[in-house]
User: What shape does this take?
Amino acid sequence: GRSVSGSVRPSIASLRPPKPSGCSGMSLASVAAWNNAFADSRASRSLANCCRCSGDSYFRADSSTRIVTTFGDSAVAGYTIALRIIIFALLPSWGMSNAAATLVGQNLGAGKPERAERSVWVTGFSNMVFLGLVTIIFLALAEPLIRIFTKDAAVVAYGVDALRYISYGYIFYAYGMVMVAGFNGAGDTATPRYITLSGYWLC
Assistant: This one.
C-alpha cells in the first residue's frame, strides 16, 4: 500500500502546470517598465508636451473651419475642396519634414550638431523647391482642379480663391514645417508651439 501511494504522488506532482515563464514573464516585465516610465515625471511632461503640440494643430484647423462657416455653405464647400487638394500636395513635404527630424535626432545623438543644422537647411531648401513648383501649378490650374470635384459656380469660385491664396504661402511654409520638425527631432516641443501661436494666430 505504501509503495503504491509513494509511486502515485510523484506522478500527480508531475501533472501540475509549470510556473509561468517566457512570454508571460516578459509581459509582466513590460507592464512594470511602462508603469515606471509613466511614474517618471520627466517622461510624463514630455508626453504631455507632444500631446499639446498635436492639440494645437487640431485646434487651429478646427477654428479655421468654424470661421469659414460664417460665409455660407458654398464657402464651406469650396474651402473644404481646396483644403483637401492642399493637404494631398503637402504629403511629400511632411515626409521630408519627418526625415529632417530623424536626421536632427541622429546627428545630435552622434555629437554632430553642425551636421544636424545642415540637415535642416538642406531639407528646407528641397521642400521649398518642391512646394514652389506646386504653387505654380495651383496658381495656373486652380479652376480645373476644383472643377474635378464640383460644377457649382459659387463653390468653384470660393475653392479657386482658397487654393490660390493658401498657395502664396507655400514657399514660406516649406521652410517653417521643416524647422518645426527639426525642433521636434531635437526634443524641443515648446518652441514649435510658440512658433505656431505667433505665426498662425498673431500674424
